[in-house]
Automatic annotation (TrEMBL):
Transmembrane segments: none
GO MF term set: oligopeptidase activity; serine-type endopeptidase activity
Catalysed transformations (reactions): Hydrolysis of Pro-|-Xaa >> Ala-|-Xaa in oligopeptides
Enzyme Commission no: 3.4.21.26
Keyword DNA-binding: no
Highest taxon in the source lineage: Bacteria
Boundaries of every Peptidase S9 prolyl oligopeptidase catalytic domain copy: 502-712
Broad EC category: hydrolase
Signal sequence region: 1-20
The protein's name in its UniProt record: prolyl oligopeptidase
Keyword Signal assigned: yes
Gene3D superfamilies noted in UniProt: alpha/beta hydrolase, Prolyl oligopeptidase, N-terminal domain
Record key words, sorted: Hydrolase, Protease, Serine protease, Signal
């Protein structure tokens, strides 16, 4: 066990912004008992000293998290510069005078989320016409007395007269959905709980909607995500009687697994309904039926695709169904088949595989759009089914491109945007018929300090096996490549999700302090297509953290930073990356940020959201995959008597994706094992889940993590006058 205490200079110091402030003593690091539990996995013996922390209903466990959180807050509160960093986040946020999001048109009404700098979360507005007078429809922060609600989603019906609004508390994402009359701004009697993300699909007649609820609002309920059912709600009826339309029970011959979400939704033109199995496997399993089948005692489903078809998304446009597929094409290709009788095996190749990776597919009323990537930079192409011609969408700039639609089934009007590491981006209105871009009414000019001085380098570096791995490096002009700069290196590498360029005001606050930022692109993402994803998946997962380590070695070798100033960060599934990086190469890092992290992979299936993720990481029920899980398990690779870097683990108490005991067990193991004398903290966010829209909570959370890392990396803005870490 380590105790962190701070001593004061014996003389008085005049405090000014340029002088580090003295810190006071903090309470002792809470003791964590070891209670060994031994398991044998296919002949391999594994001892778990902290299994008792998995019982989140135990008062002892709750007390442990509370004491760890209190201790962490006491330490973080003593770091000079933390509060100034929060204020810098606030100041930069004020420079964007208004933020618009999720703009949806129905009839002549435009619905959107709008957030002002003075507000910690967005409100729902509507305006008649794109430039009409706006009206406040709903303020989630004023919804419940004594509680803080946020709006997870809002879904207007096709004529813009009614809305379904999803509401959640404390970042839980499990939402209560309510219906609202747009004219009167009044809620209907319905209150349906435990709808993940608050998403629904309206019926064609706007008299009800399809949805899939969890079994419980408790994010820690082990049965909450299992054997869920796709249901139908008719407005004005009792939700407790909502019929089951799509589930294991309703469709026993479909091979639906308990951990798969049976989700139903309509095609954009609402002529077809789809039954889709929600899982982390990118290969889709889905069925299709005429929309008229909904409401019948049994829907006449027809198979659309299965995992062996390797279809990752599909879109109906007219009488054709467009399929994004990676079967025999690791970079992806676009197929087209008959929408009424779809057959991926006989579908026609519309867009062949190329050197660029197809990342997304979307459609407006008459056009299909495809986004392609070279690994970092994207471009958008459009296809006209009438002329059968492909053309590029003329979006200025480089980086990440996006396209969204005001009212896809009834209009071609689109919003197009671009962003990159050093460009906040521009929002355009786009007409695919004329291929003309104009700056959107919803674009708000942004002018942030220091952006013009940012330098971006996109390089490829050799990994442990010689594979060339992309690495994005961002820093302020004038960087001395002598290893003296602190560097925050981030990574993810899972689910085929790529580290595409984005502009961040939080990152800018660090860059303007001389911090180097590095975004790694390890295998497990899709920067180089499906093959890149599969090279960091289950048994090949070690490539993910080894690519991350190689990126850090490159930064040190080339003088961007040094091992004493390198801070590694991984979030969620990126917890595997950062956890195994510091357990394999503890000497490479000054500090690590393990944020809402998967840290105990061998036990993930014992958490509420664990079973569904077995498709990505593996299951302990398979001998090969079980050993792969052990290999990617950071907690089980913590070794007594090792000099580990400083570590801050972060858990969201309301997190429905990664339960808090995952980072908690890693923190406990490191606290009892490390001999470096460097702090290991467990931050517990009781007002947060996996993430939150609440700016007050988010700014505090990121400032805590960044200040901790930069303190340990020796950045002058975050140094107490003197600190002592001792046993």
């Amino acid at each position: 066990m380590k105790i962190i205490c701070f001593t004061l200079f014996s003389c008085f110091v005049f405090l000014s912004p340029s002088v580090a402030q003295p810190v006071t003593s903090v309470a002792r690091l809470p003791v964590t008992a070891k209670r060994p539990v031994t398991d044998t996995y296919f002949g391999k013996t594994v001892v778990d000293n902290y299994r008792w922390l998995e019982d989140m209903n135990s008062q002892e466990t709750k007390d442990w998290f509370k004491s760890q959180g209190d201790y962490t807050n006491a330490v973080l509160n003593q770091i000079p510069g933390r509060d100034k960093l929060i204020q810098q986040f606030v100041d930069y946020d004020k420079l964007l005078t208004v933020r618009y999001g999720e703009i949806k048109k129905r009839g002549n009404r435009y619905f959107y989320r709008k957030t002002l700098p003075s507000e910690k979360a967005g409100k729902l507005y509507v305006r008649e016409g794109k430039t009409g007078k706006e009206t406040l429809l709903f303020d989630p922060l004023a919804y419940g007395k004594g509680k803080t609600y946020l709006m997870t989603a809002f879904t207007p019906d096709s004529d813009g007269k009614k809305l379904v609004i999803g509401l959640q508390e404390g970042g839980a994402e499990l939402s209560t959905v309510r219906t609202m009359d747009v004219v009167t701004k009044t809620f209907g009697p319905e209150s349906i709980t435990a709808v993940f993300g608050g998403e629904v699909s309206w019926l064609p007649d706007n008299n009800g909607f399809l949805y899939t609820p969890n079994n419980s609002m408790d994010t820690k309920d082990p049965q909450g995500n299992l054997n869920t059912k796709g249901r139908l709600h008719k407005l004005g009826t009792d939700p407790t009687n909502n019929p089951d339309l799509f589930s294991i029970e309703k469709n026993p011959d479909f091979g639906i697994k308990p951990d798969q979400y049976p989700i139903m939704f309509y095609s954009d033109d609402q002529t077809q309904v789809y039954g889709y199995l929600g899982t982390v496997d990118r290969r889709t399993t889905a069925w299709v039926a005429p929309a008229s089948e909904v409401g019948k005692s049994t829907i006449g489903w027809k198979r659309l695709c299965t995992v062996t078809d390797s279809v990752t998304s599909f879109i109906k446009l007219g009488d054709q169904l467009f399929l994004q597929s990676v079967k025999g094409a690791p970079n992806g290709r676009i197929l087209v088949t008959d929408a009424t009788n779809p057959n991926p095996a006989t579908a026609t190749v519309l867009l062949p595989e190329s050197k660029q990776n197809i990342t997304r597919m979307a459609s407006s009323k008459d056009f299909l759009f495809v986004i392609l990537s070279d690994g970092i930079n994207e471009k958008i192409r459009q296809y006209d089914p009438h002329t059968r011609q492909w053309t590029d969408v003329p979006v200025p700039g480089t980086g990440t491109m996006g396209i969204e639609f005001y009212d896809a089934p009834r209009s071609n009007d689109a919003i197009v945007y671009s962003t990159s590491w050093n460009d906040p981006g521009t929002i355009y209105d786009y007409n695919p018929e004329t291929r003309k871009l104009v700056t959107s009414t919803f674009h708000v000019p942004m002018n942030y300090p220091g952006v013009a001085d940012l330098v971006v380098e996109e390089v490829e570096i050799p990994s442990h096996d010689g594979t060339m791995v992309p690495l994005s490096i961002i820093y302020k002009k004038g960087l001395k490549r002598d290893g003296s700069a602190a560097c925050l290196m981030n990574g993810y590498g899972a689910y085929g999700m790529s580290g595409t360029p984005y502009f961040s005001r939080r990152n800018l606050a660090l860059l303007n302090r001389g911090v180097v930022l590095a975004e790694t692109h390890p295998r497990g993402g899709s920067e180089k297509g499906q093959a890149w994803y599969k090279a960091g998946y289950k048994t090949t997962k070690p490539n993910t953290w080894k690519d991350f380590i190689a990126s850090g070695e490159y930064l040190v070798k080339n003088g961007y930073t040094s091992a004493g100033k390198l801070v590694g960060m991984g979030t969620s599934a990126g917890g595997i990356l950062i956890g195994r990086a510091i357990t394999e190469r503890p000497d490479l890092f000054a500090a690590a940020i393990s944020n809402v992290s998967c840290s105990n992979a061998l036990r993930m299936e014992n958490s509420p959201n664990g079973p569904i993720n077995a498709a990505e990481f593996g299951t302990v029920n398979d001998s090969t995959e079980c050993m792969a899980l052990y290999e990617m398990d950071a907690f089980n690779h913590v070794k007594e008597g090792t000099s580990y870097p400083a570590v801050i683990c972060v858990g969201g108490w309301n997190d429905p994706r990664v339960i808090a005991w995952q980072p908690g067990k890693l923190a406990a193991a490191l606290q009892n094992a490390s001999t470096s004398g460097k702090p290991v903290l467990m931050q517990v966010n009781y007002d947060n889940g996996h993430f939150t829209e609440d700016k007050t909570v988010s700014f505090r959370n990121f400032a805590n993590m960044f200040a901790f890392g930069l303190w340990q990396a020796g950045h002058p803005d975050f140094q107490p006058i003197k600190e002592v870490v001792r046993k």
